[in-house]
Amino acid sequence: MTWTADDFEALRPMGWRDDAPAALALAGRPKAALARVVGQHRNAYVVATTLDEARRVQPPAAWTRPRFRAEDRAVVGDWVLLDAKGEAIATLLPRHALLRRAAAGEHYQQQPIAANIDFVLVVTGLDGDFNPRRIERYLLLVQASGAAPVLVLTKADLAGEAASEAADLLQPLVDAGFPLHVLNGKDAASAAVLAPYLGPGRSCVLVGSSGAGKSTLTNTLLGRETMKTAEVRETDSRGRHTTTSRVLIPLPLGACLIDTPGMRELKLIGEEDLADKVFEDIEALASQCRFRDCAHLNEPGCAVLAALDSGELEETRWAHYMKLRDERDAAATTLAARRQEARQAPKGTARKPGGKDKFGRR
Predict the structure, then answer these.
(1) What's the 3-state SS for 329-354?
(2) Nearest-10 crossing angle of helices 132-143, 315-344
(3) Distance from C-alpha of 132 to C-alpha of 178, rounded to nearest angstrom
């Protein structure tokens, strides 16, 4: 039997898109149970075939092998085909977006966060949580995902003049084209500015550090308290992890929302483009230097140094750009080496028990 439009009607409220790679990949495939991953646990997934029907299923055996790439396993937001019994995932369908970070720790490994998302709401509290440098890091990861980032500053009701000061600090990002919304996450009328991103068929994910107000905002968008919230320490504005796993939630406006645990560490994956909006102003300055190989140290005719001297370019923003560029380049080198190793390894090659590869991974 072949797929028809009727097969996808129940999935549209869960974010199914007829123009997405997942839909195109079904052409010529025999019909099977199609589902979306709405929850993820250590050894199992929760998938939904409709908004009202969810079940726990097992991953393919290959996904449990230590050296199977994390980014090739399903994550919340993925579309999958189930086996004939509907008890296990048989096929992971292609994605149109995948938000990733490099996992915390000494050795390089990508950690998927959410798949098939249209917008990523980068949530930051207008308290001690506010950090423009961390926001820039988030934006680089989102830009590399294929989804569109939206900057959301919460706790405007507590911020006073700090709200306008924070917006001023983010003006270079607004000038680059990133939408910015300042709101009270507890107030539905204030949060209504996010409606354009939360319409039917849309999939969104909330990201931000613990205590940024993601769960509070989720409850407001839902119109009821579903996600736990916790008090934030006054000393550093950090909160406990009130969201402990990623889960996909249907919203009254029609979108599906993924709430994620707070992320204290955000390492680049090596595929970020620093010239893609986040630092396009700095890249544009660098292109105006007299020498094409200008290191921006003491060369004559350096447009970057001139901008720093005049105050056009903020010192801390320039220093962070250089830090992120070095981190991205180091991650890219490691990523290229891993891919080369994977291409050269004979199929079926296994490590000795307890052994390590060249990167120190067991």
Answers:
(1) HHHHHHHHHHHHHHHHCCCCCCCCCC
(2) 30
(3) 13
Question: Which residues partner with 79 through β-bridges?
Answer: 36
- What is the distance between the alpha carbons of residues 50 and 45, in angstroms, rounded to a whole number? 15
The C-alpha atoms of residue 205 and residue 194 are separated, in whole angstroms, by 13
The alpha carbon of residue 193 and the mean position of all alpha carbons in its chain are separated, in whole angstroms, by: 21
What are the tokens at 315? Answer: 């010192």
Q: How far is CA 331 from CA 51, 69, 268, 297, in A?
A: 39, 16, 7, 24
What tokens appear for 97 in the block? 């977006």
Domains for the chain: give ranges and CATH numbers: 5-95 (2.30.30.140), 101-259 (3.40.50.300), 280-344 (1.10.40.50)
SS (H, E, C) 122-163: EEEECCCCCCHHHHHHHHHHHHCCCCEEEEEEECHHHHCCHH
- Collapsed DSSP state (helix, strand, coil) of residue 47: strand
Cα dihedral value 68, 72, 75, 79, nearest 10: -140
Beta strand 148-154 pairing with 45-50: unpaired
**Do 260 and 204 form a contact (C-beta atoms < 8 A)?**
no
Contact status, residue 49 vs residue 35, Cβ threshold 8 Å: yes
Looking at the DSSP bridge assignments, the partners of residue 46 are: 39, 56
pLDDT in tens, the chain (362 residues): 678 888 888 888 999 998 899 999 998 788 888 999 999 887 899 999 988 889 999 999 999 888 888 899 999 999 999 999 999 999 999 999 999 998 776 677 889 999 999 999 999 999 877 999 999 999 999 999 999 999 999 999 888 888 999 999 999 999 999 999 999 999 999 999 999 999 999 999 999 887 778 889 999 999 876 544 444 444 444 444 344 457 888 999 999 998 777 676 789 999 999 988 999 999 999 999 999 999 999 999 999 999 999 999 999 999 999 999 999 999 999 988 888 887 776 665 544 444 455 445 44
165 membership: H or E segment, kind and range: helix 162-169
- Cα–Cα distances (Å) from 242 to 39, 228, 236, in that order, read 16, 6, 17
Q: Which burial class, exposed, middle or buried, applies to 11 when counting CB atoms under 10 A from its CB (0-12, 13-18, 19+)?
A: buried
